[in-house]
Each structure stands twice: as structure tokens, then as C-alpha cells.
Specification:
The protein has 142 residues and is mainly alpha-helical. The chain has three domains: 1-48, no CATH class; 50-90, no CATH class; 94-142. The protein is 77% helix and 0% strand. The chain contains seven helices and no strands. The chain has helices at 2-5, 7-10, 15-37, 51-81, 86-93, 95-113, 116-136. Helix 4 packs antiparallel against helix 5 and helix 6 runs antiparallel to helix 7 (116-136). The longest helix is centred in the middle third of the chain and has 31 residues, at 51-81.
């Protein structure tokens, strides 16, 4: 992701950016044969042949890409387009990692003691409450 952050300074067609992108793609492709040949691989690729695991990992990957793509772009949005100071942008972004940490702790506790079903119900309730609260307060730019 560092090369994307440097794209404005280097330019999208610069040699440095394209070299970084090519190295990342080659490394990603090279992982598969290396892991297949290893006696004790870090990731057992045979597990991905199980449809339930493969689909759940795929959906989790898409969810994390969506979450962290937004958190990657938001500081630029707040500072460049909204004209907020760095401190104000940071203050507005602070609830996201705190919420993730608190929900992770809650989920761990609930899953360990009450079961995964109760943990999912609790997370849904938190999400609905957050959506309702967010819907009532739209005035962060004032």
C-alpha cells in the first residue's frame, strides 16, 4: 500500500511505482509454488479446496478490504476536501479503531462463554445501534 500512498508524489506512470507494483505481484504469485513445495507450509493450500472455508475467507477478505479502504481514504478526504486540520481529522477517525477493539473484546468474551450465536446477535445489535446513532447526527462539518 505504500506505493499507492506515494503515487501522488511519484506519479502513476513512474518507474518507481510500477517497479513496486511489479514486485508485489511477483511476490504474491510466487507464494503459491513455494508453499506447495514446503514440507511444513505456513498456509496449507489444500484447506482452500473446502468450499465453506474458501467462501468464508473470501467474504472476510472482501469485508476487510471494504473496511480498510475506507479508513485509508478518509484522512485524505477530511484534510484535502473538507479542509480539516490534521488534529481534527485524527479526532474524527479515532472512534473506528476503538470500536473495532471493543467489539473484538466483546466478541471474544461472548464466543467463549455464551456461544457464537449470542456473539453474532450482540454484534448485530451494536451495528444497528451505531447506524441509528449515525443517522441522527449528520453535522460533523460545523
Amino acid at each position: 500500500m505504500g506505493f499507492v500512498a506515494s503515487s501522488r508524489e511519484w506519479g502513476w506512470a513512474s518507474g518507481r511505482l510500477l517497479t513496486c507494483l511489479a514486485i508485489a505481484i511477483v511476490a504474491l504469485v510466487a507464494v503459491v509454488p513455494v508453499e506447495q513445495r514446503a514440507r511444513r507450509p505456513i498456509v496449507d493450500l489444500a484447506l482452500l479446496r473446502q468450499p465453506v472455508l474458501a467462501s468464508s475467507l473470501g467474504s472476510m477478505m472482501l469485508a476487510m478490504l471494504a473496511l480498510f479502504a475506507v479508513s485509508f481514504v478518509l484522512p485524505f478526504y477530511f484534510e484535502e476536501l473538507c479542509g480539516f486540520s490534521v488534529a481534527r481529522a485524527g479526532f474524527l477517525l479515532t472512534p473506528l479503531p476503538l470500536t473495532i477493539a471493543l467489539v473484538a473484546l466483546q466478541h471474544t468474551f461472548l464466543a467463549a462463554f455464551k456461544g457464537a450465536l449470542l456473539a453474532c446477535a450482540g454484534l448485530r445489535a451494536v451495528g444497528i445501534l451505531a447506524a441509528l446513532v449515525r443517522g441522527q447526527d449528520r453535522g460533523i462539518a460545523q
